[in-house]
Write a structure and sequence with these properties.
Layout lengths: L2 E8 L2 H16 L5 E3 L7 E10 L3 H12 L5 E11 L7 E6 L3 H18 L12 E7 L2 H10 L7 E7 L1 E10 L2 E11 L4
Antiparallel strand pairs: 1-3, 1-8, 2-6, 4-5, 4-7, 5-6, 8-9
Helix pairs in contact: 2-3
Length: 191
């Protein structure tokens, strides 16, 4: 039985990808100790499922479709920067989701309930924060440099996209980084 590393997410569109890529180039000048996410891999994660058996993938996609039908299409705006877990010890650099964040939280909650009902999924203890991952900090020097740069970028605007579907992704890890493949599409209400 084959298993797939699987997650549920939202595509951010080419305009936001372009803005995020330009920001990454600016931030890369500050310190090279950050591994930047490739633009083609950028997305907003709703729920990371981990390894899913191929035989369970249909049920996962069906549950995602049910949750998606409960929400209308919405506008998502990406702006501002932040880090996880905090500015003293940044490990992940991210762009925030402002418009559309409430819808993403509702979708996350609905999807989590459905995945828990299917079994094989454990909810995360930390709360869900809608965000677009830009990079991972690899060195203590980069952490200091990134933390110093954040206050200068709070007004950064990444753009807006109309969201009309939720996607189920397969994530294959290789030496160049993850490769994401859409294995399921779930239209939002009215689509």
């Amino acid at each position: 039985m084959a298993r797939r590393r699987t997650f549920i997410g939202i595509d951010i569109g080419d305009a936001i990808r372009g803005s995020a890529k330009a920001l990454q180039k600016e931030l890369a000048k500050v310190d090279p100790g950050v591994k930047w996410v490739t633009p083609e891999s950028m997305h907003v994660t709703l729920l990371f499922l981990g390894d899913v058996d191929d035989r369970e993938l249909h049920a996962v996609c069906k549950a995602v479709a049910t949750a998606a039908r409960a929400e209308p299409s919405f506008s998502l705006r990406v702006s501002g920067l932040g880090v996880f877990p905090n500015a003293r010890r940044p490990k992940v650099v991210w762009a925030g989701v402002t418009d559309g964040a409430d819808v993403l939280r509702r979708l996350h909650t609905a999807l989590e309930e459905k995945m828990l009902a299917l079994g094989g999924y454990r909810s995360e203890e930390r709360g869900y924060t809608p965000h677009l991952t830009l990079g991972r900090v690899n060195t203590p020097e980069a952490a200091v440099a990134v933390a110093a740069e954040l206050p200068k970028r709070t007004a950064w605007q990444g753009g807006r996209v109309m969201v009309d579907e939720v996607l189920v992704y397969d994530s294959e890890l290789n030496s160049d980084g993850p490769v994401y493949t859409v294995v399921g599409r779930a239209p939002l209400a009215g689509q």
